[in-house]
Every structure is written in structure tokens, then in C-alpha cells.
TrEMBL record:
Keywords: Carbohydrate metabolism, Lyase. CDD domains: KDPG_aldolase. It is an enzyme of class 4 (lyase). Pathway: Carbohydrate acid metabolism; 2-dehydro-3-deoxy-D-gluconate degradation; D-glyceraldehyde 3-phosphate and pyruvate from 2-dehydro-3-deoxy-D-gluconate: step 2/2. Belongs to the KHG/KDPG aldolase family. Its EC number is 4.1.2.14. InterPro entries: Aldlse_KDPG_KHG, Aldolase_TIM, KDPG/KHG_AS_1. PROSITE patterns: ALDOLASE_KDPG_KHG_1. This is 2-dehydro-3-deoxy-phosphogluconate aldolase. It comes from Providencia heimbachae ATCC 35613.
Length: 205
């Protein structure tokens, strides 16, 4: 397995972050680094994402950073320029996958059906996001998919403290993604202490 994927596997969960103010990047990275989750999937759902990633990377060179919700090749370029370690997309877009492979950056695209897994296999991708996890059948769907396909999944979407153990118990699950430990309201209000508690709790699963 690729070294980066090995590192991801060692994490309990990948925090999925939506950031409104790029200045929050470095303090949030500090919370993640100091509380046992040295990884951030920063979603390209806000204009602040690119600069937030740059700020995180400058402050913590060892933080694993993904660009999430990547929908265009332009965003792939912006993410690489900002210093991400890998790219995540919610769906399987062959154009994005091809572009990332040309750029030699790891892409973890989203899938939630046998047909999409097979499309991903055509691109030699065997680590896939399972999104939206709960809405797509949750662990029952994952078990059915992994009985057929030699792939590892990063389930995301609807996962929290109440159900993460059901996912991490599956051998096909590399790591889970989730946003519950990095809620927007706490980031916007700069409540780093409360965020630290939630991140530490998630890291101790
Ligand atoms: C994602 O982009 O991966 C999801 O929005 C995260 O899902 P969650 O908010 O249900 O954890």
C-alpha cells in the first residue's frame, strides 16, 4: 500500500472541514495536531478553502491535508498549489480522476454502487470514498460491495460517535470521514477549547 494510504489508515477518522475564514486554518490545524487527529479534509465548499489550506500547510508541514468536495480540474490545480497531500471528490468523475492521475496526485473519489466501483477499478483505483455512507445503505451496502470487489473504503456522510464502530469493524474500511468533531459553528466562533475536546474524543474512539 502507498505510504500516504498507510498514514491515513493509522488515523481513527478524517475530519471533514468547511472553513469560512482562512485565518481559522492555522489554529484549527493546531487543535487537530495537538489532539490526536493530524489530518484535515478541507472542503472546497467555501472561497476560503484554498487560503485556509495554505495557512495550515505553512503552520504544520506534517499535517496530512486533503482537498475535499473537488469538482473541477481548476480546483485540483488550486489544491496542488496550496500543498495538499491528496484529493477527495464526492462522486466519481472520470475527468477529475484522469487529471489527478496525470498530475500524479492521489485521488479518492466517491462511489456508492457496484457500477461506480467498477468504473474506479478501470482507473486502477482501489481506495474509494463511500459517500453518502448512511444514505447509501451504510455498513450493509459496504459488506455487499466488499464481498465482490478488492477495494478499501473511506465511508463518509452520516457517521458519528453513535455508529462509527460498526464501520471501523469492517476489514474493508480504511478509515472513516466525518464532520461531527469540527462543526462550523465552533470554528466560526473560534471555540478552540471545545473543538479540542471533540477532536480528542474522536481520536480516542
Ligand atoms: C463529506 O463531504 O464528506 C460529508 O459532507 C461529511 O459528512 P458528515 O457531515 O455527515 O460527516
Amino acid at each position: 500500500m502507498n505510504t500516504l494510504l498507510e498514514k491515513i489508515k493509522r488515523l481513527k477518522v478524517v475530519p471533514v472541514i468547511t472553513i469560512n475564514d482562512a485565518a481559522h486554518g492555522a489554529p484549527l490545524a493546531k487543535v487537530l495536531m495537538e489532539n490526536g487527529l493530524p489530518c484535515a479534509e478541507v472542503t472546497f465548499r467555501t472561497p476560503a478553502a484554498v487560503q485556509a489550506i495554505k495557512n495550515m500547510r505553512a503552520a504544520y508541514p506534517d499535517l496530512l491535508i486533503a482537498a475535499g468536495t473537488v469538482l473541477t480540474t481548476q480546483q485540483v490545480d488550486q489544491a496542488i498549489d496550496a500543498g495538499v497531500d491528496f484529493i477527495v471528490s464526492p462522486g466519481f468523475n472520470p475527468k477529475i480522476v484522469t487529471y489527478c492521475q496525470q498530475k500524479n496526485v492521489i485521488i479518492i473519489p466517491g462511489v456508492n454502487s457496484p457500477s461506480l466501483v467498477e468504473q474506479a477499478l478501470e482507473f486502477n483505483l482501489t481506495t474509494l470514498k463511500f459517500f453518502p455512507a448512511e444514505a447509501s445503505g451504510g455498513t450493509a451496502m459496504l459488506k455487499a460491495l466488499s464481498a465482490v470487489y478488492p477495494v478499501k473504503f473511506m465511508p463518509t456522510g452520516g457517521i458519528g460517535l453513535n455508529n462509527i464502530a460498526q464501520y471501523t469493524a469492517l476489514p474493508s474500511v480504511l478509515v472513516c470521514g466525518g464532520s461531527w468533531m469540527v462543526p462550523n459553528s465552533l470554528i466560526d466562533s473560534e471555540n478552540w477549547d471545545e473543538l479540542a475536546k471533540l477532536v480528542a474524543e474522536a481520536a480516542n474512539i
